[in-house]
Amino acid sequence: MKFAFTVFLDVLFFLFLSFSLSFAVLNFFVDRPFSIVFSAVFAALFSLIATRKMIDNFVKTRLKKQEKEELDDMLIQFNFSTKTDNNDLFEKLINRLGYQTERKKGGIFLTEKNAAVFVAFGFNDVGKSEIVKVFNSIRKNDVAYILSETFSQDVTSFAARFMGRIILVDGKTVYTSLKSHDALPEKKYAITPEKQHGLKLFRNLLLKRKAKSYLTFGLIFLFTSYFMPIKLYYVIFGCVFLIAALFCKLFGIKETEENF
């Protein structure tokens, strides 16, 4: 209803604008009755074309917005689901397409084709070590497809060195393929992309490799406290970083355990 009212107002605007402009120009060159008739016809045709163009743009914009929302929802489901659940979804789709599969080495191997699919959605980005691990997991003539939300330029360049045997498939491509086969994941988790990004950043702070950085910062703060008149704040922050270093070392997330 709101859109129809907006279109009606835009039609009136186009009619008034095109008629006024046409009449203002023609009135200087032809008789007034002819300029009125011609301006009315011109205004009707112009308004029809402009309104059609506006509706087409609205539909395209709405479709793009819907696709973006579906893409965000799909990424949320994959990032929050377990590796097993994600593999189950893709394996069912591959089987539905008529291919036999075998689950091993963290991937889905197509037994009748020289191909394997590795689902790497999660909160950790795919790194070079994951690329090497996948390459070492496939057979001599296999091509591995690694699926993840995004890939850094460095990782993309590194994967290109494997002469086409490592294919990186980003989230948009996965979405297009799943949508075309009506296989988008069921919506089990509801969270905004902004919150998802925040959670990703938070989990990155808990990576096991961060322990060295926290240890360094903690020692710097404690060392600096000896030269500062107000030592308490430096000691507190130094101890916080040392505790964070200990926590990450003992309970931190390994970069590969979320992906493969």
Can you describe this structure?
- By secondary structure, the chain is of the alpha/beta class.
- The protein is built from 9 helices and 5 strands; from the N terminus they run αααβββαβαβαααα.
- It has helices at residues 2-26, 32-80, 83-96, 128-137, 153-159, 171-180, 193-204, 210-225, 232-251; strands at residues 101-104, 107-110, 115-119, 143-147, 166-169.
- The protein has a 5-stranded mixed β-sheet, with helices on both faces.
- It is flat.
- The protein starts with a helix and ends in a 9-residue tail after the last helix.
The helical percent reads: 55-70%
State which percent range the strand residues make up. Answer: 5-15%
Count of helix runs: 9
Strand order of the largest sheet: 1-2-3-4-5
- N to C succession of SSEs: HHHEEEHEHEHHHH
Termini separation: 49 Å
Largest sheet: 5 strands, mixed
Could you write a compact summary of the structure shown?
By secondary structure, this protein is α/β, with parallel strands linked by helices.
Features of the shown structure:
260 residues, alpha/beta, five-stranded mixed β-sheet, 63% helix
Topology (SSEs and partners):
Blueprint: H1 2-26, H2 32-80, H3 83-96, E1 101-104, E2 107-110, E3 115-119, H4 128-137, E4 143-147, H5 153-159, E5 166-169, H6 171-180, H7 193-204, H8 210-225, H9 232-251
Parallel strand pairs: 3-4, 4-5
Antiparallel strand pairs: 1-2, 2-3
Helix pairs in contact: 1-2, 8-9
